[in-house]
Amino acid sequence: PGAHIDVFLPSGRRRQYSLCGDPSDVAEYRIAVRRIPDGGGGSIEMHDLTPGTQIQISSPRNAFYMAVPGAGSPSTRLRFIAGGIGITPILPMLRLADRLQLDWTMLYTGRHRASLPFLNELSPYGERVTVRTDDEHGLPHASTLLAGVDERTAIYACGPAAMIAATRAGLPTGSQAELHHERFSAPTVVNGTSFEIELARSGETVTVEAEESALDAIRRVRPHLTYSCQQGFCGTCVQRVLSGEVEHREQLLTNLQHQDGQMLICVSRAEGQRLVLDL
Q: Are 81 and 163 in contact (CB under 8 A)?
């Protein structure tokens, strides 16, 4: 549960989608794609695919895995929080939790009920699942998101950045509750400054603007560069730094990897004005 695949579309676009099927069914992969008319075009292309069209996908990767209480997690309870299409990685988790007869609850939130997929698949779980929409109750506060959470609870949250931020802010300072989260978009760059990146193998230089990631800047000249989560979770975009100081904005790489010159270009930045990468 929590895994995703990369889908390579006929146009050359590459998109990531969470697997939302039953984790016990290994015969097929199920994904859900919300059509976004004013997005980057990937969701429209996905919806326009016809039966028989062949596309390439990656093997599943998981940077949002669920640690089962008593077998990898010290927690004894689970709290699932999903916002809109963020239900997709959560759905297999609660299926597994229910199958294992774990102590769990879920809050499912969104703008209105029509915007919430899979409501019919949640109905068998009864009072364990609370559906709360903005049009009926207003935006959820941290006390609602974290209802019933204590030090023994592991929290799994997926949805809009504001929902994740409210969940994180609602935990008391020093709380021992586990918080695992996934966004469906790259995090906003905070306190970023512009810098340059030289691609050593080609000699090209790109400017990384204050509000964009190094990955986005490099993809202007290397559109087929390998990447996946864009959040510093999966490690797919790691590159070697040949020169310059790095401001590491992730918690995935070890200190030894940092010392070895490795950098996740989706989130980390330059400490100074320039980096040279082995690209």
A: yes
- Copy the structure tokens of residue 119: 């409501």
Residues 166/134, Cβ–Cβ less than 8 Å: no
Q: Give me the count of residues in the chain.
A: 279
Structural domains of the chain ordered from first start:
4-57 (2.40.30.10), 68-182 (3.40.50.80), 195-277 (3.10.20.30)
Per the CB < 8 A criterion, the answer to whether 9 and 55 are in contact is yes
Which amino acid does the sequence have at 230? Q
Q: Measure the CA–CA gap between 162 and 113, rounded to whole angstroms.
A: 19
For the chain (279 residues), the mean pLDDT of every run of 10, in chain order, is 89 88 91 82 90 92 84 90 94 95 96 94 96 93 92 92 87 85 68 94 95 93 82 84 94 86 94 96
H/E element, 165 = helix 161-170
Q: How far apart are CA 266 and CA 237, in angstroms?
A: 7
Query: At 162, phi and psi to the nearest 5?
Result: -65, -35
**SS3 per residue for 10-46:** CCCCEEEEECCCCCCCCCCCCCCCCCCCCCCCHHHHH
Query: What does each C-alpha distance from 96 to 5, 69, 91, 178, 279 come to in angstroms?
Result: 19, 12, 9, 18, 42
**Residues paired with residue 7 on neighbouring β-strands, in sequence order:** 15, 57
Query: Six-digit token pair at 169?
Result: 């802010």
Q: Provide the pLDDT for residue 153.
A: 94
- Report which residue type is found at 236: T
Sequence letter at residue 264: L
Give how far Cα 252 sits from Cα of 63, 134, 177, 263, Å: 10, 34, 20, 10
As beta bridge partners, residue 182 has 158
How far apart (Å, rounded) are the C-alpha atoms in residues 138 and 247?
38
pLDDT given at position 185: 58
Q: Which residues are registered as beta bridge partners of 6?
A: 16
